[in-house]
């Protein structure tokens, strides 16, 4: 059985983008794979997190994953900071990856923005930690949204350079699994920017814990253009906001975008947005209710995570110990 690894940062509340680009696929992959899913709190502190909010966000992210259908009995769900192997392997990868490789990472450029000198060094080496997350388990497939493709290419470069430098055939090749019509959900305020849990504007995203009224209002206010919806895909060219809403509808209705346009083409956005809001509420409200149920008993969430950390460490620790021997650490 193929081993899968993926992670999500507890840097805010999970969004519809996280759900469609990642979490929903994580759930589906559980039937035929061995899955290891991680709330990556070490990654989250590459940008400032208020400690009190951060602890709550971390627990809530775990609750959301359980509410979406991650099964911690057949698979593993845990916190990155609870398994030391991640940070240990990341240090070795800091010494394998080249500065020139990291300089090409578009996510660093986006997140650091103009004030690059003031970004944390953690944000810069973030992709090395991500490579360590995956390779500490020798996972071979990683379900992510489109925005993570470049990081997975870098992880493969690190794996290959390690194998080459140490003359071993140790780390496997990693295959990105970028699935579905909504692998890149865009902001509701700007169709050229991805929907993000760390966007300053809450109106730019649907949070998985938004109530029905909030969802309807955000969709009604979503940026669009004055033209009606086209009946065919060509009509979406150069209309990023329209394309985004159609993509969200298609993903949630399990349709392709062509069929959505066949049903809704010619309508103005008013009517389409109403149909979309009803669909989003229908799909997300059971998740929000289930998340609240888990959060009513935080100790049960913690117990799941503690159990997951133990089982994760049992896989990762021997792999990282072997890496340390290959590097030449005496280990006494
Ligand atoms: P992050 O929110 O950066 O921790 O991302 C967690 C997962 O959600 C990753 O697999 C991302 O690729 C995916 N993801 C995040 N934002 C989006 C988005 N707007 N559209 C699709 N996938 C996304
Ligand atoms: N960098 C990913 C993101 O922001 C999160 C992540 C961390 C991850 N480690 C990972 C995803 C390992 C897949 C595999 O979306």
Secondary-structure map:
Layout: E1 3-8, H1 16-29, E2 34-39, H2 41-44, H3 51-68, E3 76-79, H4 85-94, H5 99-103, H6 106-112, H7 121-135, E4 141-143, H8 149-165, E5 175-177, H9 212-220, H10 240-253, H11 257-264, H12 269-295, H13 298-327
Parallel strand pairs: 1-2, 2-3, 4-5
Describe the structure concisely.
With 332 residues, this protein is mainly α. 54% of the residues lie in helices and 7% in strands.
What name does the CATH topology of the largest domain carry?
Answer: Rossmann fold
Number of helices: 13
Strand content: 5-15%
Strand order of the largest sheet: 1-2-3
The total beta strand count reads 5
Assign an overall shape: globular
- By CATH reckoning, the class of the largest domain would read Alpha Beta
Gyration radius, in Å: 21 Å
Question: What count of domains describes the coordinates?
Answer: 2
Structural class: mainly alpha
Order of helices and strands: EHEHHEHHHHEHEHHHHH
Quaternary organization: single chain
Low-pLDDT runs of 5+ residues are none
Outline the biggest β-sheet: 3 strands, parallel
Helix content: 40-55%
Structure description:
This protein has 2 domains: 3-183 and 298-327, 3-Layer(aba) Sandwich (Rossmann fold); 209-293, Tyrosyl-Transfer RNA Synthetase, CATH 1.10.240. The strands form 2 sheets. The chain has a 3-stranded parallel β-sheet. The two termini are 35 Å apart. It is mainly α. The radius of gyration is 21 Å and the shape is globular. The protein has helices at residues 16-29, 41-44, 51-68, 85-94, 99-103, 106-112, 121-135, 149-165, 212-220, 240-253, 257-264, 269-295, 298-327; strands at 3-8, 34-39, 76-79, 141-143, 175-177. 54% of the residues lie in helices and 7% in strands. The chain has 13 helices and 5 strands.
């Amino acid at each position: 059985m193929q081993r899968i690894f993926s992670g999500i940062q507890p840097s805010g509340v999970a969004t519809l983008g996280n759900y469609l680009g990642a979490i929903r696929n994580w759930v589906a992959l559980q039937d035929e794979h061995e899955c290891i899913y991680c709330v990556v709190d070490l990654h989250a502190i590459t940008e400032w997190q208020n400690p009190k909010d951060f602890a709550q966000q971390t627990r809530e992210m775990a609750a959301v994953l359980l509410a979406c259908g991650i099964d911690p009995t057949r698979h593993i769900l845990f916190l990155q900071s609870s398994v030391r192997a991640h940070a240990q392997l990341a240090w070795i990868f800091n010494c394998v990856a080249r500065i020139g490789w990291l300089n090409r990472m578009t996510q660093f450029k986006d997140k650091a923005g103009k004030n690059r000198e003031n970004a944390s060094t953690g944000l810069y080496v973030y992709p090395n930690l991500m490579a360590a997350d995956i390779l500490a388990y020798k996972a071979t497939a990683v379900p992510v949204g489109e925005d993570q493709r470049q990081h997975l290419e870098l992880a493969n470069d690190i794996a290959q350079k390690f194998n080459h430098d140490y003359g071993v055939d140790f780390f496997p090749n990693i295959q990105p699994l970028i699935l579905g019509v909504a692998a890149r959900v865009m902001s509701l305020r700007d169709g050229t920017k991805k929907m993000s849990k760390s966007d300053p504007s809450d109106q730019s995203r649907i949070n998985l814990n938004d109530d029905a009224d909030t969802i309807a209002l955000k969709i009604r206010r979503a940026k669009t253009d004055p033209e009606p919806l086209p009946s065919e895909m060509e009509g979406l060219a150069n209309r990023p906001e329209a394309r985004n809403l159609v993509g969200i509808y298609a993903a949630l209705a399990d349709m392709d975008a062509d069929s959505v346009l066949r049903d809704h083409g010619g309508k103005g956005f008013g009517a389409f947005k109403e149909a979309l809001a009803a669909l989003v509420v229908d799909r997300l409200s059971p998740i929000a209710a289930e998340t609240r149920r888990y959060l009513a008993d935080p100790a049960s969430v913690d117990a799941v995570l503690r159990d997951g950390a133990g089982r994760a460490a049992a896989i990762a620790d021997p792999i990282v110990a072997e890496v340390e021997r290959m590097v030449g650490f005496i280990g006494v």
